[in-house]
Write a structure and sequence with these properties.
511 residues, twelve-stranded mixed sheet, four-stranded antiparallel sheet, 24% helix, globular
Length: 511
């Protein structure tokens, strides 16, 4: 067996019933159960609940760790990192089979929640999804005003029967890792469509930053107004909708959609509600890292997202207690009608907020500006989304010699009437897919009015110019909701949208 194969050899662990060692009242959280994957090579935790003062003993591979449940009945033991070996038996309570591999938390809104059955070429993908060493865990949808201890869900081996309803992005990410690393991969999908980042951030983190005071105050007002808003909904809004629906039916027309009720304390949009119910119960579970696909619901507050998104990442890392674990995210895809002229864009500003997050340690970005859909906020090509996330992980987390990203903006130099844009992550040089002229660049002078520019590739740079801008000072690329753009790296990965200026955007005052 070669060195790489030895490095990634499996440790099979069996969790078996031992009534002589533990009380019948011992309970494990849902995420510790049959078919689970434990993170290899780092300290892991086994925890649960029992009668107050009850002694719990965990045995594995010749090691034995004991602990007594505290006054509230909670207990936790830490297991030293486990490398290649086994199989082993681990005795706690219950009969379950677990393995050691790579564990990733997968979170966000609807594009992370979007299932394999809804992605491109779904029938073929489902039929081929026979990967018993990829284990799937979907956290049940739930909100809470306070942190919870457990989630609903169970582990399942990946198969044509279990994969259809699982996150497509998470599955394709995990599949690529599994194929390249040759180890089991555990995927914990905890996502909810339409939700903003503040719902996935703890209340303590939000309250600690004055920048988020307007956000929290707005929700205090929403909750204060709820009784009156609910009465109006019940007494006016619903009856009006019912009348309109009856009229549409009588006229043979499609009935209008029933209006949503006003937001209440249980709303999945409320700050911290999803962190409390769908993240906090997981934080004792050792992971390799997290992938994140979200941002659409925060696009109208893109400047705030510059601070909110890193705050959420730092909050998760602090609470997991594993240092700066890898946090990889998907930049927003191209979407909505294409505009003929350079213009401002909230979605472009959100992408910029995501791009700026790369200044924080051990973060990574998958660019998908080339695979969106102008008419569908949920692009179906999740295969490339998952693969591009996996490429960054393979390069930065696992040390593989693969490109991590498409071209990223480095710097701008002005050369007379031309501007030269310098890029990193070009992997053999810049190009367009078919050798055609570069599109997507706009240039501006001191009047700050952008016009489309001519762009020519020169090595790892692009020279940008326009006869309408004799003295350029700023360049933008793919700065639009749905830009026409075609710059790629030598590894066929798309360049990230960017701007060289820091002029006030359209979302700067939105809190």
């Amino acid at each position: 067996m070669n060195r790489d194969a030895c490095r990634f050899a499996l440790v099979a662990v069996v969790l078996v019933l031992s009534t002589g060692l533990v009380c019948a009242d011992v309970r494990l959280p849902a995420v510790i159960g049959d078919g689970m994957v434990l993170q290899r090579d780092i300290e892991t935790h086994i925890w649960g609940w029992a009668a107050a003062g009850e002694e719990i003993t965990v045995r594995i591979a010749g090691r034995e760790v004991s602990v007594s449940a505290d006054e509230e009945g909670r207990w936790k033991v830490s297991l030293a990192p486990m490398a290649a070996g086994g199989p082993h038996e681990m005795t706690v309570a219950g009969a379950n089979t677990i393995t050691l591999g790579e564990v990733w938390v997968c979170s966000g809104q609807s594009n992370m929640q979007m299932a394999v059955r809804s992605c491109y070429d779904a029938e073929k993908e489902i039929a081929a999804a026979d990967y018993p060493d990829i284990r799937l865990f979907s956290v049940g949808l739930k909100t809470s005003p306070t942190p919870l201890e457990d989630v609903a869900g169970k582990w399942a081996p990946c198969s044509p029967e279990t994969v259809p309803g699982f996150s497509a992005t998470a599955y394709f990410f995990g599949r690529h890792l599994h194929q390249q690393l040759g180890v089991p991969v555990g995927l914990i999908n905890t996502s909810w469509g339409g939700t903003p980042a503040e719902a996935w951030t703890s209340g303590q983190a939000l309250e600690a930053d004055p920048e988020f005071a307007p956000l929290l105050a707005r929700w205090e007002q929403i909750l204060a107004d709820y009784p009156a808003a609910k009465r109006k909904y019940d007494e006016e809004t619903v009856p009006a909708w019912e009348k309109a629906a009856e009229q549409a039916k009588a006229e043979g027309k499609e009935a209008p959609r029933k209006p949503n009720p006003p937001a209440d304390a249980a709303s999945p949009h409320r700050p911290a509600n999803l962190y409390n119910a769908m993240i906090h119960p997981l934080i004792d579970f050792a992971i390799r890292g997290a992938i994140w696909y979200q941002g659409e619901s925060n696009a109208g507050r893109a400047y705030q997202y510059r601070r909110l998104f890193p705050a959420m990442i730092l909050d998760w890392r602090r609470r997991w207690g594993q240092g700066d674990f890898p946090f990889l995210f998907v930049q927003l895809a191209n979407y909505m009608a294409r505009k003929p002229d350079p213009s401002e864009s909230a979605w472009a500003e959100l992408r910029e907020a995501q791009l700026r997050t790369l200044t924080f340690p051990n973060t990574g970005q998958a660019v998908i500006i080339d695979i969106g859909d102008a008419t569908d906020i949920h692009p179906k090509n999740k295969q490339d989304v998952g693969k591009r996330l996996a490429l960054w992980a393979l390069n930065e987390t696992y040390g593989r010699d693969v490109p991590r990203s498409g071209p990223l903006y480095g710097s701008l130099t002005v050369e007379g009437n031309r501007a030269r844009v310098h890029f990193t992550d070009t992997d053999g040089g810049l190009k367009t897919p078919d050798g055609s002229a570069v599109t997507g660049f706009a240039i501006a002078g001191e009047d700050r009015k952008f016009v489309w520019a001519e762009a020519v590739i020169e090595g790892d740079t692009v020279v940008v110019s326009s006869s309408l801008v004799p003295r350029p000072i700023a360049v933008r690329y793919a700065w639009a909701d749905n830009p026409e753009c075609n710059l790629y790296s030598g590894a066929d990965l798309p360049a990230s949208p960017f701007r060289s200026d820091d002029w006030r955007g359209v979302t700067i005052n939105n809190k």
